[in-house]
Write a structure and sequence with these properties.
Structural class: alpha/beta
Largest sheet: 6 strands, mixed
Shape: globular
Number of strands: 24
Strand order of the largest sheet: 12-13-14-15-16-24
Distance between the termini: 7 Å
Radius of gyration: 24 Å
Number of helices: 13
Strand content: 15-25%
Low-confidence stretches: 1-69, 79-163
């Protein structure tokens, strides 16, 4: 029997390079109150009423619970179509000028098989429209830069908490909570979360740890040892709240078996496997790149996953990345060829605060040269505890031809100015921008067809080295697990994307 799947509506996410920055629809507007699941808390008018009990549990452990469960609980229990939780709704007076039609076949909801998919029409809308509410007009706060160390500029929303002393804090949406547990995942921007006694962090990228600081005191933070060291070193989080968990080891937390698995993303990134006493399993991928090694993991092979929280950054058929190994070979080959033509070439690799280490490490090994990075990046790299990396780092740029710079620095003017610092040693710059966003369908796996951008003595190659799963890798991963329900975590801010991903998931799990 084919598993039933659902798509969660998890707000919009804007992607910069390969790090996702969520823009959720939770409102701080005093006229719109949200419940502890991130949904409107007040009663809708009779035409649009949806039963919701504030005291209901979001657990899915008992499939025979009463009809008064919360929406979150109903959502997790629902099958293929989460839309069956809504009554028929026609809104011809939307502020945005859109007409939303949600028609639900009661036979389909009741489990009858006589209804075909074509007999049911639905246009997905945003959360407020679905619950019969007028979309609030929210002013977006300006962005301010926040720097960590001397590299890796990130952006965060500027808020004025003192402007309205009666304003409610942002509430954690249900899809960041693990049902039937007091756990949340990557939900630090919401401060103290009612009912949460354990906060999990998948990896050390700002869009996931945002909200953490030296003032954090809301509860224990569970993460990998590498991430734990970065929290203390970069954010000055109180070590009393940091609880490192070793990979591939079963930990029992609040009666739940928890196992962290290598995510093949950035150093310290982990998939988190939660197994409840009743046998229910929730797998949260955080950010990850699915690989063949995961297909041999006994935990994933032998135990069923009920709900999969899936990184869908590249859930689009046009993204069919070459393997990491193939891209690294291409980068090394290109570097060697360039140095043959111009031995006085400075080689630069763009990278995030963490991530892309394999690219410059591959060049270092092939050429037998050291790697230069500034003091703040070296401090981070040493914290990984990788001898093969720590042993080749150097503190003076003139000691090696291989340099690591922030990926945002890979601009012609910036690199030209950077080269001037070493004008006595080098006559040209060869730079690599390793990110999945440089992937081209036309080139595909034929990496030798990549054409660099060149201005004067500066050459920049965009190479499709991704630390997120491609479409084909996502499909193989889902078909390996065959989960009951899939909740995408990226690029779900509009109905078109949700519909497309929903159709992909159904296709993958046919048969």
């Amino acid at each position: 029997m084919r598993p039933m799947i659902s798509v969660a509506i998890t707000g919009g996410e804007v992607v910069e390079d390969e790090q996702e920055f969520e823009t959720n629809i939770e409102s701080s507007d005093s006229h719109i109150l949200l419940d502890d699941n991130g949904f409107p808390s007040f009663q809708l008018d009779p035409e649009h009423h949806v039963d919701q009990n504030d005291n209901a549990s979001s657990s899915i452990t008992n499939q025979q619970e009463s009809e008064s469960d919360s929406f979150a609980s109903d959502f997790y229990r629902s099958g293929t179509d989460w839309s069956c939780l809504l009554l028929q709704h026609h809104d011809d007076d939307d502020d945005d000028g859109d007409v939303d039609t949600i028609t639900v076949d009661s036979n389909r909801i009741n489990g009858h098989n006589g209804t075909t998919q074509s007999e049911r029409k639905m246009k997905q809308a945003n959360l407020f429209q679905m619950w019969g509410l007028k979309k609030p007009h929210l002013s977006q706060p300006p962005l301010k830069k926040m720097k960590i160390g001397s590299e890796g500029t990130h952006f965060t929303k500027k808020t004025n908490v003192s402007a309205n002393p009666n304003s409610r804090p942002r509430l954690c949406p249900f899809y960041k909570k693990i049902p039937g547990t007091p756990f949340t995942v990557d939900a630090f921007r919401y401060g103290h979360i009612e009912g949460c006694s354990a906060y999990f962090l998948t990896h050390f990228h700002y869009d996931h740890y945002g909200g953490l600081s030296k003032g954090w005191s809301h509860g224990p933070i569970y993460c990998t040892p590498i991430t734990a060291r970065l929290l203390a070193m970069c954010l000055s989080v109180n070590p009393l709240f940091i609880c490192p968990l070793e990979l591939n080891t079963e930990h029992v937390i609040k009666g739940v078996r928890v196992v962290l698995l290598e995510a093949n993303h950035c150093p310290g990134a982990a998939l988190i496997d939660f197994r409840l006493p009743n046998g229910q399993c929730y797998l949260h991928t955080g950010d990850f790149r699915a690989c063949k090694l995961m297909q041999t993991c006994p935990l994933l092979l032998n135990e069923r996953v009920n709900v999969l929280f899936l990184d869908t950054t590249y859930c689009n058929p046009k993204y069919k990345f070459p393997s990491k190994e193939d891209v690294l070979s291409y980068v090394v080959r290109t570097t060697q060829n360039c140095l043959k033509r111009q031995p006085k070439t400075l080689v630069v690799v763009g990278a995030y605060s963490i991530g892309k280490e394999s690219v410059y490490l591959a060049i270092s090994k092939a050429l037998g040269v050291k790697i230069y990075a500034n003091a703040s990046r070296r401090r981070v790299l040493h914290s990984f505890g990788w001898p093969e990396l720590s042993g080749v780092l150097c503190s003076h740029g003139k000691d090696t031809l291989l340099h690591v710079l922030p990926i945002s620095s890979l601009r012609f003017e910036t690199l030209r100015d950077y080269l001037k610092t070493y004008k006595d040693q080098y006559a040209a710059v060869l730079a690599f921008r390793p990110t999945g966003w440089t992937y081209s369908e036309t080139i595909g796996n034929q990496l030798d067809l990549i054409k660099p951008s060149t201005k004067g003595n500066v050459t920049i190659f965009g190479v499709p080295y991704s630390e997120h799963s491609s479409f084909t890798e996502l499909r193989e991963f889902v078909q390996l697990l065959r989960p009951d329900k899939i909740i995408p975590t990226v690029n779900v801010g509009n109905a078109t994307n949700r519909d497309k991903m929903h159709s992909y998931f159904r296709e993958w799990l046919k048969g």
